[in-house]
Structures are given as structure tokens and as C-alpha cells.
Amino acid sequence: MKNALLIATACLLGLLSTTGASLPYPILPPLFVNGAADGLTNFLGLPPKLLFAVALMVNPIGLLIGTAVLGSLSDRFGRRPLLLWTAAGAAIGHVLTAWALSVHSYPLFLAARFATGLLEGQGAIVRAMLADHLQGPLRNHAMSWLNGCFTLGWLFGPLLAGLTIGFGITVPFYIAAAALLLGTVLVAITLRREEVAHGPGWWAVARERHAFNLLRHDGLRMLFIVQLAYTCGVTAFYEFYPLWLVEVGRYDTRAISLVNVGMCGLMSFTAVFAGRQNRDDPLRRAAFLATGVALAIASLGTGQLWIGLAGIMLFGLPHACYNAVIQVWAADRFGGHGQGAVMGLLSTTFCLANILMAAAGAVLTLFDTRLVLVAGAMLTAWAAFRMRAWSRVPGVGGEAF
Questions:
Q1: Dihedral sign, CA of 104, 108, 109, 112?
Q2: For residues 120 and 21, is the Cβ–Cβ distance under 8 A?
Q3: Is the pTM of this model over 0.85?
């Protein structure tokens, strides 16, 4: 019963965090491409596509900082207090985002999205919480279920946007804020207070124990490199397939949200079963799955709507399985460095990839949106190649799990 409550709490937090993060994805492309020129979409007279790319970039910058330090801070000060503060703060961030949209303020929108991203970096804490208390097959399954809930948030957020956008562009963000406040209450009820040992203050921990310190270790540095290449492809896909749908299929917010429902629904269903025992070498299996992800992303490069739609839908199958494999393998192999810091490194890598691909997209989409998608597919394919080579190094791949 105790483990079930722990897993349920972690899954709820994962769902709520990504629901809010994913809300703007179907809202922003039509707004910046087809919306009226105002202080939000025509700030300083800059090209709307450039403003759109920067709007995508600012939230991951906050996430990058948050995920780099929040996992390590929770190692020092406890999971419960960090989860309470970050969930409540992210709710306030969504309220500020809604306000920015209502007054058509691009600078306020950027500031609100940055602050929200900073506090939504709690995913590392949630993963570390499971890694702390669970072992063996149950941990494998719990990590997979948590990944499914993170994925389900990417489904539910755009779906929420599509269903409520008719009531006003700010409504989805107010609903997300209310859900996060509910999550804060549930954390306070379900998680016990932790005894925190005396030690350095939060600034010292953030400065000296952030996730990037792990890059001093050869194995973790290699994990960072291949994971960064892989997630560059994934984030290019997440960030720009809605814009691709607007340009190729003339999709609006509701149509984009329906496509996202199909993709994320299949991904969430796959994630439920992705943590099953498997006797294959983890890195070889991850390399195979990354190849499938690269092919799905590359399908959008054809510029054919139905081929691209098939790629979007099928993307979730290998990606969900890949996440389950690589996260559990990293927890097993590198957990001695602190589960919060290791999970923080994985989350930070994803955030850095968001920033890099949003920056690349700010330039490439001015020529053709397909360019950033094809570049992402090539990076993911390279990651698959490197993981396959890495698995051949004695003592790296590890035992099957």
C-alpha cells in the first residue's frame, strides 16, 4: 500500500507538470502565423516566426536551470519541501502567463514562461523519489508508469487547450494553475515530512552539486553526449511538428490538439508496458529504439501530409520504450552519484536540447520548417549509432534488466 501511494503521487505530479508545460504547443503556432498583429505577435516589428521560436526557447531555459539544481537540492533538503514549493510556484507562473496573453505583452509572456519552466524542473525530484524507495522490477515498472504520466501530460495539455480555447485563450492556463494547486495539496497530505541533516546551504548546494558536475565522470559524460543528440531530435519534433501541421495541412489549434491526442495516447499506452523485464543489452536495445525515433521524425521531411501524420503517430512507440530503458539503466549504473543528481542530468539534457533546437529553428524555419526536423532526425540517428558502439565497450552495457 505504501509503495502504491508513492507511485500514485509521483505519477500525479508528473502528469500535472507536463500538462502545464505542453499547453502552449497547439496555441502558439496559429497565433503567431495567422493571428492579428499586436504587442504579442509583432513585438518590435520582428518576424512572427522568430518571436514564436524565442517563445518556445524561454521555457526550456528555465527548465534547464531548474532541472540542473532541483534534483541535487532535493538530495540535500528532502523531496517533500522542494515538491511543495515548485508545484505552487509553477501554478503562479501559469496565472502570469494567462495575464500576459490577455494584455498582449510579449516580454511578460517570456518572463512568465521562464519562471514556470524554472519551477517545472521538478521531474528530476519525482524520478529520484521513486529511485530512492523502490528496487528491482517494481522500480522498472514505476519508472515506466511515471514516463507514461509525463507523456500523458503532453496529451492532456494540448487536448485541454483544444477543448477550452473557445472560452478564451487564457482559460487553459487558469485550469492548469488550479490543477497544480490541487497537486500541491495532495503532496502535503500524502508525503511525510523528512528529517534533513545539517549541511551546506541551498546556494552552496546549487553551485557545487548541480547536475553538470557529474560530467567530470567519463561514463556520465558519454551518457550526456548521446542523450543530448537523441533529445535534440525529439525536441525538434515536439517544438516544430505543430508549425509543420499549420504550414502543410493548414491545421488550427483544435486540429493540432487532436493529432497530439493520437500520438501521446499511443505513447502513454506503450509506456505502461515499456518497463517489462528484457534480457537484451540495454544500450543495444536503446540504439535500436533511437533508430526508430529518427525514422519517424525524418518522415516529416518529405513534406507529404499523410506520410508525416503517420510518422507523428508512430513516433511514440519507440520513444516511450527508449525512455524506460535509458532511465532505468542510468539509475542502476550511476545511482551512487545521487539519484536526484543523475535524474537531474537526464532532465537537464532534455532542457538543453529544447534550447538548442529552438535556437536552430529560429533560423531554419525562416527558410523551411522541414530543415529543423531533418536536422533533428540526423542527430537522433547519430545518437543511435554512438549507443550501439558504446554498448560494445566491455563493462558499459551492463547486465540486462
A1: negative
A2: yes
A3: no
